[in-house]
Design a protein that fits this description.
Blueprint: H1 2-6, H2 14-35, H3 42-57, H4 59-85, H5 92-108, H6 118-135, H7 137-140, H8 143-146, H9 164-169, H10 178-207, H11 218-238, H12 241-266, H13 270-316, H14 319-334, H15 341-354
Helix pairs in contact: 2-3, 2-6, 3-12, 4-5, 4-6, 10-11, 10-12, 11-12
Length: 355
């Protein structure tokens, strides 16, 4: 999966974001290289600062997403009641009625059906662009390939380019006690799984959703609480430790941000969020209405302008010019091509005159 995501540098839009983030990584590495007297740990420090920078950049979007999650926790029970009401009704009229009632619920809370998904959709290209920069860091930071191997060491990690599994296999070849290498190789996946679990729990806390058997989402959340940390353990154990370092730091940064977000959102009642959403929705409706009115006014003005222009052209035509046009039309009709509508009209005219 991560290897597939690493190829995202070739995707449209994501590739451009990768290029930009690569410039950020290169800038961070260059600054550290100029500031520090040693090359040891440069790549690890660059990954840490890069991760902090990018997730700080995404913080406003994360806050909006968490607000949407909290609203969805209030809206979902009402939506589920409507869905349960129409569960066995599959005719078109019932489906349309169900959609209408669900839309009324979202309107009541001043949000939309896409409200919970939109912030995540906006973040997705940026999230996909994070991995290729770290996975193929030398492509974005050319100076690494010319530097000594010390740049890829970090604390007790002997080489950020190899996986913990490989570290265990080669534990006696790094010039460090094998026990230290093995403990480090085991600790990285374990810490990754623990931080991932912590981040999930903090993220779920903001929505106020209770993990009980009466909650339809409880099963999904319990599954996610288990699978996500386990996936994290597997990825960190089998991928280069640079990715593992990023994974751990990102989970820690997100957890720290989540604590701050939770404190911020606890100060805001759901009623306040609803009122703010309603105000935003009303402002959007007013803007759409004003825009429609302006378009309508412009269309009416254009229509009046065209009409006035046509009237001016008609009024500007002299009586003599009108008579000349009528005479030309009469002559053209008299010499009309046989079989044409004009020739048939002439035949009718002559018949009426003779009778």
């Amino acid at each position: 999966m991560i290897v597939t995501v690493a190829s995202a540098a070739n995707w449209p839009i994501v590739g451009q974001i990768c290029w930009l983030l690569g410039k950020v990584m290169n800038f961070i590495y260059t600054i550290l290289d100029n500031m520090l007297s040693t090359d040891t740990g440069l790549v690890g420090l660059s990954i840490i600062l890069y991760t902090i920078f990018v997730y700080t950049l995404m913080l406003p979007m994360t806050i909006n997403q968490q607000k949407s999650s909290r609203m969805m926790a209030v809206i979902n029970p009402e939506v589920q009641k409507i869905q349960k009401k129409y569960r066995n009704k599959r005719d078109q009229a019932s489906m349309m009625k169900q959609q209408e009632e669900i839309q009324q619920v979202y309107d009541k809370y001043g949000t939309s059906m896409m409200g919970g998904c939109l912030p995540m959709l906006i973040q997705m290209p940026l999230l996909f662009a994070l991995y290729p920069v770290i996975y193929d860091i030398e492509r974005y930071v050319p100076a690494i390939s010319k530097a000594s191997s010390d740049v890829n060491t970090f604390l007790t990690i002997p080489d950020l380019t190899i996986a913990p599994v490989q570290m265990i296999k080669d534990s006696g070849s790094f010039g460090v006690p094998a026990a230290v290498i093995i403990i480090t190789a085991i600790a990285l996946p374990v810490i990754s799984g623990a931080t991932q679990f912590l981040n999930i729990k903090l993220s779920q806390a903001v929505s106020g959703t209770q993990m009980d058997d009466n909650n339809p989402m409880a099963g999904t959340m319990k599954t996610m609480n288990m699978t996500m940390p386990l996936m994290s353990v597997f990825f960190v154990a089998t991928l280069p430790t640079g990715i593992g370092l990023y994974w751990i730091v990102s989970a820690l940064v997100r957890s720290f941000q989540q604590v701050l977000i939770n404190k911020h959102l606890k100060k805001m009642s759901v009623e306040d969020l609803i009122e703010k959403n309603k105000d935003k929705a009303e402002k959007k409706r007013q803007k759409r209405s004003e825009k429609a009115e302006r378009i309508n006014e412009m269309a009416q003005m254009n229509a009046r302008s065209l009409k006035d222009s046509a009237n001016r052209q008609v009024s500007a035509m002299s009586q003599k010019e009108r008579d000349e046009k009528l005479e030309n039309a009469r002559k053209n009709a008299e010499h009309a091509k046989p079989g044409s509508l004009a020739s048939k009209a002439n035949m009718v005219k002559h018949f009426n005159e003779n009778n």
